[in-house]
Amino acid sequence: MESCAKGFDQLGDMGTGASVAVEGGLVASPGKGQAWEIKATSVTLIGAADQEAFPLQKKRHSDEFLRAIAHLRPRTNKYSAMFRIRAQLAQAIHRFFHERGFFCIHAPVLTGSDCEGAGEMFRVTALGPGALGPEGVKGDFFGKDAFLTVSGQLSLEPFALALGDVYSFGPTFRAEPSDTARHAAEFWMVEPESAFADLTDNMNLAEDILKYCIQDVMDHRPDDLELFAKWVDTSLLATLEKLAAEPFERIPYGEAVEILRRASKKFEYEAAFGKDIQTEHERYLAEEHFKKPVIVYDYPKNIKAFYMRQNDDGQTVAAMDVLVPRIGEIVGGSAREERLDRLTARVTEMGLDMECYQWYLDTRRFGTAPHAGFGMGFERLVMLATGATNIRDVIAFPRTYKHLEF
Ligand code: 4AD
Ligand code: MG
User: Fold this and answer.
1) Which residue ranges have their beta carbon within 6 Å of ligand 1?
2) DSSP state for residue 389 in the 8-state scheme
3) Which ligand number lies closest to the CA of residue 182?
4) Of 348, 316, 356, which Cα lies nearest the Cα of 334?
5) Distance CA 58, CA 399 (A)
6) pLDDT tens-digit profile of 61-93?
7) Domain boundary assignment for the chain
8) Superfamily of 73-111+153-393 according to CATH
9) Do the Cβ atoms of 85 and 385 come closer than 8 Å?
């Protein structure tokens, strides 16, 4: 910069983080690692950054440190790239469904029913602490129990049975008290639901959307991906290219359990038919055994939700999970039980409140049709695309167990 530039005397106040206006000509830069520089004729300080207190330095900071200053971390190269990729993926999802003729449905966030039946719900109340009177929840805003939704699925099914192909893409909430790198209390879920679709259609759709989204980031944000490939995971681009190009593996749950039982690897939890597949198992299958995404299907009915379509073997349901390297489960879905008698029997068997599900059963009572859908964790998709290993690093202001800052 030439010393005659207007405002040059203020340069001392223009430290890291300051906001400035620079006027001048763009010229080829002789400097390393940059193609251009500005030959300034004037510089103006717009907002100074207190250099004593400003926490970001011109050096690499740890992810843990940056999490503690989540309001400033988007100013770093890494996190600005992260949130551009997240935005790109969100757009890709809507475009994918639009191109395929799916209609976007806005599922409610406040709900009176527990879709997954897992009971990991946040309660919503308008009452102050200790204000529950003698009439109990009847005295609360809705006059009944109210929660934040864990999934938009039950709201989507009636729309699939009316419009054909629909989806929702919105916030979901789970009060899982597990402090893992893959679980958030507030996360976004992508949920397609299709009429006249079976489990195979569902698996095809899940594979297609994952490939589409990953290809879209590679096509539109190559520079941002490059940063993650350089600093976060050197095998990232090879992993993404393989994911977009090669067919996913597909195996029944029973076969997955066999592979896990034969594995020489020592697991914390033993794999056994009838037991849930743990994250360590999921990662082993995708990362080590198949070295690519794998779709596991036909799970035992006793470990899955009531709405999943019962298979003829009487043991399993037409469920599927997509497992990917480094993350494990990214998609969970199923064909839905469309037969009224079977569904009613399952609601009873699982001890669910029949009253609560009357409207849902109506969709089977009046012109039922085979249908299927799934939920894809949006944050897990961003983790997959960037190589990020902690879900807290792909959410603007993460909400996790015992953490609600900003
Ligand atoms: O497998 P899940 O629980 O499926 C459902 O909720 C179905 N009702 C969806 C449907 O069929 N429409 O959740 C779907 C996906 C998981 O595979 C995972 O990627 C993500 O949502 N997910 C979470 N992501 C972040 N934090 C959490 N606590 C998550 N719980 C689930
Ligand atoms: Mg699941």
Assistant:
1) 115-116, 151, 153, 174, 176, 183-184, 187, 189, 191, 329-333, 373-377, 379-380
2) -
3) 1
4) 316
5) 28
6) 999 999 999 999 999 999 999 999 999 999 999
7) 8-54, 73-111+153-393
8) Bira Bifunctional Protein; Domain 2 (3.30.930.10)
9) yes
